[in-house]
Amino acid sequence: MAISDMIYKIRTSSHLSQEQFADMFKVSRQSVQKWENGTSTPELAKIIEISRRFNVSLDALLLNRDNRIVEELNYNKTMKPQYSNIHDWEFYTSDIMTEYQQSIDEGLDIDIYKSVFESVSRLPKNEIKKKFGDILYEIVINASRKEGYKYFEPSNLEGIKALTSKFEVPNKISKKDLERKIYGAWMGRICGCMLGKTVEGIKTNELHPFLKETNNFPMHRYINKSDITDETCSKYTFPFTNVPYADQIDGMPVDDDTNYTIMGQLIIDKYGTDFTPYDVSRAWLEYQPKDAYCTAERVAFCNFINGYEPPQSAMYKNPYREWIGAQIRGDYYGYINPGNPEMAAEMAWRDASISHIKNGIYGEMFISAMLAVAAVSDNIEQVILGGLSQIPYTSRLYEDIMTVLNSYKNGVSQAECFENIHKKYDEYDGHGWCHTNSNAMIVTASLLYGGGDYGKSICMSVETGFDTDCNGATVGSIVGMMKGIDNIPDCWTICLFRFGVFFRSIL
């Protein structure tokens, strides 16, 4: 860069006119004009004065060797984010081994690339890791299905409906009884969520010893702050000092398991019962900030912002696409479709398909349909079969739920049934811990072995581990719907009414 260009850049960057620049150095405007067009050069004394006044080296003015100026000129070519500030859920390769396992679960033929996935997973979070993620995503999205893969799992509504079975809906219910049931479902969801929220994230190798130590095993009550001592805390890695307790609250703490039920109502209020997946995506952007969303939901939210619409928003760089997030979102669609599991499941599909695929979608459809049936029936097996009738019988979720149901009908003990779930899905692995199927199996088993007893059912779902607040909430919602508010004992609701806090009916 010639000295004429450097003087022009210095002047204009400082927002000075030629007259102002000339006054600084006691020369005429015409002199500055000549310096800038190259017809003359400043005398050495003026060059030194310019250098000092604008903190620019003589090398930069005369020889164009100043790195600071070069970097300033090229900043727009080298700008990169501070990768350490990007949350792992928003950085695809942070959980690239989850992507690998998810793809294997789907039957994608990518085994040959396992070592590449493992190597990329060990890289620091930087531009290179991001670029490798782009390549691995291309591999996944273009991978073929393995020959002999036995499951057929469409994500589109028409494909799903073609693989469902007929279900005879029981008799309808009176409005008075329905109000009692829906209130029971809503309160049941809140109390079950609270039970599991205290130990959300704990593993059973610490949960069970803790429950035994506090005389709460088998679980039969809330975990209270009074159960916790300094000695207790010193024995476990789980952070017992930083969680909410039922004997210290005056209402349900904020939780996504209850937020999404309210979100369902807001979506219906704004868009009506004919809402679309795109409508749901807009509601997400409008009603909650990014940090309210986790895993698959966080990925989808960021995809909305970047212009991806459903169903692409569920698929683009989303390793969590079959995790539990959608399964906890469908309650409201069951509440407003009593006795109509097909419509409940369809609404659930519209909600789930913005962030999930395949079994991730089926989980929400399964729960919503069960709640629709539970509104008109308190027969647990009938409720489960009603839910199963709305998901593909060729899917992994259908197979897993039927495994639990058949185990129960064949006399397998409660302990053995839950042990089998732990054998199939690893609670110490994030993918197993947070997967739709593992947690749906726990929900199903808790309903069956709980026998319609509200407290027994939610406690069973929580003491089993995995996603405790989600499963407690879902089981509580279904049993609450089947049995109604009158059959949820006061010992569960009392902490939510303390100081006059009252949760009204969804109706």
Give the SSE layout:
Elements (H helix, E strand, L loop, with lengths): L2 H11 L4 H7 L4 H9 L6 H10 L4 H6 L3 H7 L1 H4 L17 H10 L8 H8 L5 H15 L15 H5 L13 H23 L6 H10 L16 H6 L20 H16 L5 H11 L7 H11 L6 H4 L15 H5 L5 H12 L5 H17 L5 H9 L7 H14 L4 H11 L5 H4 L2 H15 L3 H10 L4 H16 L6 H8 L10
Structure description:
- The protein has 507 residues and is mainly alpha-helical.
- The protein folds into three domains: 3-78, 434 Repressor (Amino-terminal Domain); 83-141, no CATH class; 160-231 and 244-500, ADP-ribosylglycohydrolase fold.
- It has 29 helices and no strands.
- The protein has helices spanning 3-13, 18-24, 29-37, 44-53, 58-63, 67-73, 75-78, 96-105, 114-121, 127-141, 157-161, 175-197, 204-213, 230-235, 256-271, 277-287, 295-305, 312-315, 331-335, 341-352, 358-374, 380-388, 396-409, 414-424, 430-433, 436-450, 454-463, 468-483, 490-497.
- The longest helix is centred in the middle third of the chain and has 23 residues, at 175-197.
- It is elongated and about 100 Å long.
- The protein starts with a helix and ends in a 10-residue tail after the last helix.
